[in-house]
Amino acid sequence: MQNSSHGVPLRVLIIGAGFGGLGMAIQLRKAGIEDFLILEKGDEIGGTWRDNGYPGAACDVPSHLYSFSFEPKADWSRKFAPQAEILAYLRHCAAKYGLRRQIRFGCEVEGAVFDEASGTWEVHSRAGERFRARALVSACGQLNRPAWPTIPGLETFRGELFHSARWNHRYDLAGKRVAVIGTGASAIQFVPQIAPQVARLTVFQRSAPYVIRKPDRAYRSWELALMRRLPVLQKVDRLLTYIHHESRALAFTVFPSLMSLMRGRFERHLRRGIADPELRRRLVPDYPLGCKRILISNDFYPALERPNVALEDGGIREVTTDAVITRDGRRIEVDAIILGTGFTATDFLAPMTIRGLAGRDLNEAWREGAEAYLGISVTGFPNLFVLYGPNTNLGHNSIIYMLESQFPYVLDGIRALQGVRYLDLKPEVQRRFNQRLQREVRHTVWEQGCTSWYKTADGRNTTNWPGFTFTYRQLTRRLELDRYECTR
After folding, report:
1. Which residues pair with 37 in a beta bridge?
2. What was the pLDDT predicted at 1?
3. Minimum mean pLDDT among 146-160, 344-358, 413-427, 459-473: which range?
4. 149: closest CA among 469, 453, 483?
5. Most buried in the list 93, 282, 341, 386, measured by CB within 10 Å?
6. Alpha-carbon distance 131 to 34, whole Å?
7. What helix, strand, coil percent values describe the chain, rounded to 5?
8. Whose CA is closest to 251, among 266, 261, 239, 237?
9. Is the four-CA dihedral 320, 324, 330, 333 of positive or negative sign?
10. What is the DSSP letter of 455?
11. Closest CA to 341 of 143, 149, 212, 127
12. Average pLDDT rounded to a whole number, residues 212-223
């Protein structure tokens, strides 16, 4: 496999071997395009499902919907698949389509430069390897770089300190005094798992999340047998699940006032899970439902009522070598700190340095917030296609559906490069698209008065798609060449 800056360039270079990268590679192979290579910084495939192996890790989208439509799996063990099962599914996909021989593991991309004369991307890794390709596809995702909080003294802590996305499985939590910072999507899964093991667990909450019941259960043996015998049943279930989730877009993006109908579900779940009225009061969010990510769990609230678990919501002043100091001056001695503080979702493609036409830096172009046409193409960066890029995240449905909408669009672009040197998105196309998108974002539930990982520091939502997923699929059904400058 060619891996230097000399010789014939690859047709396609993909960065990342998660759902996006593997799915794109499968579609290339199905289209008869074999001249591609995947660069993966880790030592295994899976992306976020490789990295997030914390206790209790699972998907919050139903299994049948959180898998490729072209590679259905009839034997998911549960309605909502656990992390290990999703990772096994991705390994299955890589093996079935023979992708491993075209993956370079342990190859972290440091940067890429577009060569206008040849119409190729020159990519270099941190280890000094160099690659050339006609098309560069970023499949890094939005949830791949853990966010570390800026807490005074955190770096001085002498106990065990790790982020949930980099879980230290060698460290035995049994009998330890543990602090968990954060109550987001990861924390509500691992807190119930570690609470019975530790001597004392202190959960530091900055803002209370909305947590509703998770309609999860194991599939019965007769259900699995029936789906294996009649695969159409799984397709029907996938379609019905999609329609159910898609209907929620009305409340997220069109009529935010409809969210009030869901609040009753939250309040019932809170009452059933928490008996203590005072603790219940502290777990009621002070922002509108849906403004931040809605979480699903059946055991998080009961875990907080365990006698060895305490909720702290007054804030952290600092961390010392062996304790967490609350804002009101109380000292809580701990042996370990686990960060459940999420990811730097708005820093797309960072920390890579991507340079396009005339040496333009992508990080500089996105200094005021990332934007791309359909979340895929960026003006000034020819032959670059971004999967799960700006404003393609969802609050109501499966991101796999969005990725499958992007694959044909990117394939169109790659095919078009056979007749041209490069394709560069017209600036006015990107400008008009994002002006309209930001106008639509202002009417969504995410703009109802809260801060979240959906937004940049200055409050711009660069993460979520403000509409229906079937609308997005219609927009991406084909690449329209008149939106691009074609340099021959």
Report:
1. 13
2. 41
3. 344-358
4. 453
5. 386
6. 16
7. 35, 20, 45
8. 261
9. negative
10. B
11. 149
12. 96
Cα 138 to the chain's mean position, in Å? 14
Query: Which of left, alpha, beta for 397 (phi over 0: left; psi -120 to 50: alpha)?
Result: beta
* DSSP category for residue 257: G
User: Taking the CA of residue 273 as centre, how many other CA atoms within 13 Å lie in the half-sphere pointing to its CB?
Assistant: 26
Q: Cα–Cα distance between 73 and 318 in angstroms, integer?
A: 47
Distance CA 189, CA 200 (A): 18
- Residue 311: strand pairing partners: 203
How many angstroms separate the Cα of 326 from the Cα of each of 316, 320, 435? Answer: 4, 11, 43
Side-chain-facing half-sphere of 289: CA atoms under 13 Å:
21
Mean pLDDT for 135-142 is 93
CB atoms within 10 A of CB 130: 12
Burial of 246 (0-12, 13-18, 19+ CB in 10 A): middle
Predicted local confidence at residue 6, as pLDDT: 55
Q: CB-based contacts of 481: which residues, under 8 Å, 6+ apart?
A: 416, 423
CA–CA distance, 184 with 206 (Å, rounded to integer) = 10
Q: Which amino acid is at 12?
A: V
Query: 446 CB contacts (<8 Å, ≥6 apart)?
Result: 252, 290, 291, 395, 452, 454, 455, 461, 464
pLDDT confidence of residue 218: 97
* Residue matched to tokens 């799960």: 388
- The first and second tokens of residue 302, run together, are 């009961």
What is the mean pLDDT of the segment spanning 237-258?
92
User: With 70 as the cut, is the pLDDT of residue 5 above it?
Assistant: no
Burial 249-283 (b: 16+ CB within 10 A, else e): bebbbbebeebeebeeebeebbeebbeeeeebeeb
